[in-house]
Amino acid sequence: MSKGQIMTSIPDFSSDDNLPVAAGLSDVPDLPSGYVSRSDGIWVVSDEDNKVRICGPIAAVALGHTDAGDGWCKCVVFQDRNRELHDLIFPLSMFNDADGKAVLKQLLDRGFWIAGKAGKAVLRLLDEWEPEQRITLFNRHGWLGGDFRSYAMGNGSVLGAYGRTSTAHIDFAVGQSGTLVGWREEVARLCAGNPLAILAVCQALAGPLLRPLGAEGGGFHFHGASSCGKTTLLKLACSVWGDADYRRGWHSTCNAFEPVACMRNDSFLPLDEIGEADAKSAGETAYMLANGLPKTRMTAEGKEKAQARWKIAVLSNGEIPFAQFLGEARKNSKKGMLVRLVDVRVDGRQHGAFDDLHGMPDGGTFVNVLQDGCNACHGHAGPAFVRWLIEMSGWERVKSTFTELRRFYYGELGSARSAQTERVADRFALAALAGELATRAELTGWNKGESLNACREVLVAWRAVQQETVTQPIDEIIKHLRPCIEDPKGCELNETGTTLSAPRGWYDDQFLYLRPETLKSICGDEAKRVAGRLHDAGMLERCKEGLQYKLPRSIDPDRSRAYVIARRATSPRE
């Protein structure tokens, strides 16, 4: 529970002097009659005006219930033997279960002082204590309620205190170091002039916008050669909410990601090194994270279990594109899967992933300075952004701006515009909006329009790759394949039924059976991409598992996988 939520009504226990009775009664809200609160604890007053101390400082400060109206509980704050404040939530039923022993155990385990035989008196006090304050408990992080005026951080603190708190599991990766001013100067300032760095920060800020704008979860996958700056970009994004430990590895099953997704609801999830992912579940994981829906599970009675939901902005990295990873894992990468985690190439710029070194002698020095800044100052920008959104109270204007940005980015798609590419543009528009709002909130120090232009530049680069892929002429592919179609033996292919080894592939009267590496070497492009174009042209046989066949032993004793290409059809399908 958030101390900021509950402890605003707590008396000041800092003084060693006993408080006068009147002051004690006024400082501790709704204290039952017959008790007096002093700096050293709670005293029982008898009819003879005798006073007996039964426990240390404690107060029942609020009654609470879940957002569904059930689960009523009592919120208690107390001071331990080291004079540290704690808060606990006790279901009302606990005061009747086993004479309330569980209540006493929790208090004692946390260092609360109770007089020798005063346990029952303390229980009676807490049971009779009926505070007027009411709070609503939500078993989740992120936005609490549909008015977007309260937000539970992963560490349990609640921003925008409106009588709401979170009982969800604590995310210990959420933490702070340094100051917001230090982060703006040592981290955000160095992002200016570096579109990929700006996109990384913008994506980290985008999570709290997803639910209010009705946007889809998911995000981007940064890929490129080793040591090009991918990890630095991910650390840069992490610094918005925590340190480098805020990132998670891809090496988990789809089920294992569910609790992680719950902890990062309405926030940000950075995933490091897709090469370590479980190849069989990476696609399903991307779907699950983007859609905000866990696997359906049933109760013993055959009813669907209530499941958590989430909205998350995701940023992934790895040496190979997400689409290629799925292809190499022999996973049919549907377009819907790929727009949930959009491939963005990050190498090949002037200095790896960066363009402007801000006067530093080389890329290595720049990366070291940027990482030092992230280590020294982190965890401030995200919470500050959420506070600004709460205080802004202008979601209709934000929605209108988002609509305009989407239209602008759709226009940048050109001939590549389609329903799928518009969803990609939506991701860039949301990231740009987050950056522009954070700049307006004076969090980044960037110029107005810098986020918009940076995200636009990366979108245009992505579009160029897509157009190159989409417009690849089938006639050129057929031209490359023509020698194999007409003279397969001369192209070092073996006739099926022979006992000779076939390092490149096989052929018969109807088909070529080409290994993926052979198809790539012949056509000069990724085998999966070429196979897709051949399938569209009616020249590729497709099995249930995808575009590759597992050959029968009659062709290959090792049962290799190969693309089966027709030798007769040479024109696109009608």
Characteristics:
elongated, 5-stranded parallel sheet, 5-stranded mixed sheet, 574 residues, 37% helix, disordered C terminus
How would you describe what is shown here?
With 574 residues, the protein is of the alpha/beta class. It is 37% helix and 16% strand. The protein is built from 19 helices and 21 strands. Strands 6-5-4-7-11 form a five-stranded mixed β-sheet. It has a five-stranded parallel β-sheet with strand order 13-14-15-12-16, sandwiched between helices. The longest helix is centred in the C-terminal third of the chain and has 22 residues, at 419-440. The chain is elongated.
Number of strands: 21
Number of DSSP helical runs? 19
From the alpha-carbon coordinates, what is the Rg to the nearest angstrom? 31 Å
Q: Gap between N and C termini, in Å?
A: 63 Å
Structural class: alpha/beta
Q: Please summarize the sheet with the most strands.
A: 5 strands, mixed
Low-pLDDT windows of residues: 1-26, 570-574
Q: How much helix is in the residues?
A: 25-40%
Mean pLDDT score, rounded?
Answer: 86
β content, as a range?
Answer: 15-25%
- Side by side, the strands of the main sheet go 6-5-4-7-11
User: Could you say which overall geometry the principal axes of the C-alpha atoms support?
Assistant: elongated
What would a concise description of this structure say?
The chain is an alpha/beta fold and 574 residues long. The protein has helices at 3-6, 21-27, 101-109, 119-128, 180-191, 195-213, 230-238, 257-263, 282-291, 322-328, 335-338, 363-376, 381-392, 395-411, 419-440, 450-470, 474-486, 516-523, 527-536; strands at 35-38, 41-45, 51-55, 58-66, 73-79, 85-91, 134-138, 142-143, 151-152, 158-159, 164-166, 218-223, 248-249, 267-272, 312-318, 341-345, 494-495, 505-507, 511-514, 549-550, 561-566. It is elongated.
